[in-house]
Design brief:
The protein is mainly α and 154 residues long. The protein has helices at residues 2-6, 8-21, 23-36, 38-51, 53-62, 66-78, 87-96, 134-140, 145-153; strands at residues 110-114, 129-133. It has a two-stranded antiparallel sheet with strand order 1-2. α3 crosses α4 (38-51).
Length: 154
């Protein structure tokens, strides 16, 4: 223990270098450890998060769309529709729509909207996603995009 304390930085650098040399093998090893005892792994994760709350918050702030994307993916899996999209695909979709709402055309903070709602059989694939401002997305509820546009016109 005293040796580790005296050489902590050096040992961490060696471990990082070994990981970088063979990332796939390291990931496979870590996955095998997790699969062997998932409860212990989750307990360790909870303990680390409790001991380092600032790291979790910093990561969340550095990756703003990640939690939303994961929530959508979980919902799609729960209802059995599947599909997924990456953050890069979402950014490309925003660029395609010039960072404006697909329904009202306003340039406001945008959310991911499912053209065919997950509750009605839509997927979380990027082809089913369009940018919408929060107010349009909330008013749309479980309508399809075409139903919502028709309702707005009426």
């Amino acid at each position: 223990m005293a040796y580790y304390a005296a050489h902590a930085e050096e040992l961490r650098a060696k471990r990082r270098a070994k990981y970088a040399e063979n990332i796939e093998a390291s990931r496979a090893y870590n996955k095998a450890l997790y699969d062997k005892n998932p409860e212990r792994a989750r307990a360790n994760s909870r303990k680390y998060t409790a001991e380092h709350p600032d790291r979790q918050r910093k990561w969340t702030l550095d990756h703003p769309g990640f939690n939303t994307a994961m929530a959508n993916r979980r919902r799609a899996l729960r209802v059995g529709n599947g599909g997924s999209h990456t953050e890069q695909e979402w950014q490309e979709k925003l660029d395609l729509f010039a960072h404006c709402c697909a329904y009202c055309g306003e340039s406001r903070p945008l959310t991911r909207d499912h053209k065919m709602p997950l509750s009605r059989g839509g997927t979380d694939d990027i082809m089913n996603i369009i940018p919408a401002c929060r107010s349009c997305n909330s008013r749309k509820r479980t309508m399809t995009a075409t139903e919502f546009i028709a309702a707005r016109a009426a």
